[in-house]
Structures are given as C-alpha cells and as structure tokens.
Specification:
33% strand, 28 strands, Jelly Rolls, 17-stranded mixed β-sheet, alpha+beta, 16% helix, 3 domains, 6-stranded antiparallel β-sheet
Length: 512
C-alpha cells in the first residue's frame, strides 16, 4: 500500500463503488491510527477524496517501509508521527515512543552482535517535542463535523523480531569486575587423640597355694568348682575363680598373697607383666611384693592399681572402698583418681568420683585378716636349757621369768635353749626376739630357726629395758623344725620368741 499513488487510490475507491468523501479531515488522533495496518472503511472514503491526507498517509507509510529495511527512524518521520498523536496524550506518546525505540535498539544490538566482534553501543534518543503545524497545512473549511468515532489507543512501533537464540550481552571491557578475595582455608580441627592401644599380653600359667582356711576354685575351661584345703596346690592356665563360701581363706599366687573374706568372690588373671583381679563381691586383702609388675583390682564402681603394697578392697552393691595398710595405691572411679597412703581410705559409688582420703581404722577393718595369719608365740622358759642357760626371775618379763647365762662360762663352752615347732602355713615367717641387753654387758647371743635362719646379736644396740628385735624371715618346711638359742657370756636375757606369717605384725605395738 505504501507504493500506491493518487490514481491507485481513486481506482481503489471506484472499485469499492463508493463516492469520494467531501467532508472535513478527521482529527489527528483518528488519522494516527491509519499509519499502519489495514484501513477502515471511513479511511478509504476520506483518503480517496482528500489529496492532502492521502499524500500524508502515503509518505508516512513509505517511510515506515524504509525504516523496516534500514532499522532507523528519521527525525522527520518522528515529528510527523508526533504531529498526528493525540494532543491530550502527549506525555503518554513520548513514553511509548521512547520505550519502543529502546526495545528496537536492544533487539537490533542482539541481532547484529555476532557480525561484529566489538561490543555494540546502544543509543537511546528521547522523542522531540511536538512541532506545531504550519499555517499552510491548516484547513479553513468549517463544514459540520461528522460524528466522532471511538478513539483507539495509538499503535506502538513494532520492534523487529529478536534472533532465535538469546545471548547474554557481552561484558564491557571498560568496567572492571571486582576480583574475589581468596577464600581462607577452613581451620583444621585436630581429631581427638585416641588412647594408645594396650600391648598384647600373653596369658601365663600359675599355681595357687592355700595357706589358711579352704576355698572353692574353678579354673578357666572347667565346668564346676573344686575345694582346696590348707597346704594344697592347684595349677591353672591364665584365669582362676576363687570363692570363699565356707570360711575366709588365705592363698598365694606367685608373689601375691590373697586374703578373701567369707562370702567374697574374685577372679585372678595372670598376664605377662600384669595381674588383673576382678572382685565380684565382698572384701579382699592383697599383699603385693614389689618388683613383680603391675597389679590391678577392678570392681563395678572403680579400680585400684599398685606395684607393691598391702591394701584392702571392699566391693558392695552400691559402693567400693579402698584402704591402705602399707605402701600407696591409686584409686580410680569415673575417670578420676586419688592417691592413698598408709592408714588412709576412700570410697566411690556408681557414677561418683572417689572421695577425698580419710583416716582409716586399720585395727577394726583388718581383724578378719589377722585371724588368717599363723603366729607361734614361744616363752623362753618353756625351752629345754643346757650348759649354763638358766631361768631367771624378772618381774618386767612376760610371766615374770626369762632365760640367760647366770654365771660366767668356762672358755670354749656355751649355754643353749632349744624347742621344736611346726608351721601351719606354707608362707614366709617373720622371726622376732624379745630381749634385754643393758649397757656395758657383753653378748654373743645366736638364734637359729630350722635350716633357713641364723641370727646374732652383734648388730643390736644395747638399751635399758626390754625390746623386740626382728631377726629376719624364714621359709619353713611343713615338717617340725628346731628353734635354738646359744650364748657364751652372762648378762643378756631372752623373754619371748615370735614366728608369724603376718609380715606387718609388730609385737612391740600389736599384741594380737
């Protein structure tokens, strides 16, 4: 339609079979709707008869056709379109035209982006203000105006279709992108240190010897328990269970002596470099010789670890108690530990740390332990006397009498006192002598116990009154043995001799 001239328009009007319109030109608002698209019937009538409007429509349509080819809108066309825009909507037309131009420019940049490696520059030109019509273009005819047709909104300028594939706009090299800061490595949290695994310990074979009382034993792998009496032995591989169900018992395994109170139960496990005891219930007293590896006692509430000492552990249903007679122990419960010295005790319940050390009543708590010991008390006047050894009256002596050399002996002779005895337990016995050795009194006293002990008074310090002197320890056989005193000088007196399996018994202070 943009290529039609006056003749074409008149011919079209003639073909339509309508007379040309001779009325006044429509308003600019109405004529602005004729610039593109198909023409309504009233537009055909008016344009066929009005040369001015027809030339204006032909010129605008022709220019719009060129714009579609070149992609640009001339300033003249923009002015003419603005002249046709409704006067009451000038602001809206400016906005619509600016939006259309912006859309068109963006689409054009996207379309031709691939043809040029340089980034496209988009220029947006705001619409120029509407020019007033020239005086020659104003018509002075004033015929009756036809009825106004309903106003249609101005048609926006259609932008060209965008390319099939939408691409993100190329980055502008003039705009520097911020360089992201290097990420800091997350702090390394060290894994909690795991406790070093215990070294593998080989299980050992052992032998249990009943020293006093009787007990029930069950070695590992056996189906039932067997009774062991005083003096009997029992070999076992690795672990043995001990139960004092009839009476309290004293037993020895290697270098450890076990005192198990009646009603108590425990298990003994021998491992290379360590002995582990599990006290199930009741009280047990342990005499551990130093230098034989680690010794541990465990209960339901805690544990005790030692290397050489004498101590008691009592395992109740709700509490564990530890008591030390000699040496020191470490008492542990719920991961907390306390150190106990001689004469101290501590206790711990389920889920409770050990209490602070307190003074212990050893005499009361260890009464049942002392009852298991074998003590042989010998009054010196009971011995058989020979060669000048005599019974001497002495009110300060036990029983009012003692023995000693009354008169000086002839050179080469000796006086003696002798008695035979028998031990009850196959354990080391401590040997004590109660004597009186005043100052400036010569002495050559000798004591022999069986074949394992020979003691002399040469290292004894003289003192006024009676004193207990430890002569040593003796391994006694289960056969009767001889105890013999000899002396060659007058003046020293002997009151008593004590043989005891209790290594901690001091007859000077303990008269049990």
């Amino acid at each position: 339609m943009a290529e039609m001239n006056d003749a074409d328009w008149k011919r079209r009007f003639a073909d339509a079979g309508r007379p040309p319109s001779a009325g006044a030109c429509p308003r600019d608002e109405q004529r602005s709707t004729w610039t593109r698209g198909s023409l309504p019937a009233e537009a055909v009538e008016h344009l066929a008869g009005c040369r001015d409007c027809r030339e204006e429509m032909l010129s605008i349509r022709r220019t719009l056709g060129e714009k579609q080819k070149t992609g640009r809108i001339s300033g003249e066309l923009r002015s003419r379109l603005q002249a046709l825009a409704p006067r009451r909507s000038t602001k809206r037309l400016w906005i619509a035209a600016a939006a259309a131009a912006a859309l068109f420019a963006v689409a054009l940049a996207l379309t031709f982006r691939d043809s040029d490696s340089k980034p496209a520059t988009i220029a947006v030109t705001p619409p120029a203000p509407k020019e007033k019509p020239r005086p020659s273009e104003v018509r002075h005819e004033t015929p009756a105006p036809p009825p106004e047709a309903p106003q249609a909104p101005p048609a926006p300028v259609e932008p060209p279709k965008p390319a099939p594939e939408k691409l993100a706009p190329a980055p502008d090299p003039a705009v520097a992108k911020p360089v992201p800061a290097p990420e800091k490595p997350a702090p390394t949290i060290p894994a909690p240190e795991k406790p070093a695994p215990e070294p593998t310990r080989a299980t050992l074979r052992g032998t249990l010897v009943a020293l006093s009382g009787s007990c029930s034993l069950q070695a590992e792998g056996e189906a039932s328990m067997q009774t062991v009496r005083v003096g009997q032995k029992r070999d076992f591989p690795g672990t043995i269970r001990v139960k004092a169900d009839v009476a309290s018992v004293k037993a020895a395994v290697a270098a450890v002596t076990y005192y198990v109170q009646r009603g108590a139960e425990l298990s003994i496990q021998l491992q290379e470099g360590r002995t582990r005891v599990q006290l199930v219930r009741g009280e047990a007293f342990f005499d551990v010789a130093p230098g034989n590896g680690l010794f541990e006692v465990e209960t339901a509430q805690g544990g005790v670890a030692v290397k050489g000492t004498r101590f008691l552990v009592a395992a109740g249903t709700a509490e564990t108690e530890a008591l030390v007679q000699r040496g020191s122990v470490e008492f542990t419960a719920t991961g907390q530990s306390v150190a106990l010295s001689p004469g101290e005790r501590s206790s711990a319940g389920a889920g409770r740390s050990p209490a602070a050390p307190q003074k212990a009543d050893l005499a009361r708590r260890l009464t049942w332990v002392h009852a298991l010991e074998d003590s042989v008390w010998i009054e010196a006047e009971q011995m058989a006397l020979q060669g000048g050894m005599a019974v001497l009256a002495d009110a300060t002596a036990s029983g009012g009498r003692a023995v000693g050399v009354r008169d000086p002996l002839k050179p080469g002779t000796e006086a003696s006192a002798e008695i035979r005895a028998r031990r009850k337990q196959p354990a080391p016995y401590a040997v004590w002598v109660r004597l009186s050795w005043p100052h400036n009194v010569p002495s050559a006293l000798t004591l022999a116990v069986g074949d394992s002990l020979r003691w002399t008074s040469k290292d004894v310090a003289s003192a006024q009154g009676w004193q207990w002197v430890r002569a040593g320890s003796a391994e006694l056989s289960d056969e009767p043995f001889r105890i013999r005193l000899t002396d060659t000088k007058a003046g020293l007196r002997v009151d008593q001799i004590l043989l005891t399996s209790d290594p901690d018994l001091n007859p000077e202070t303990d008269k049990r």
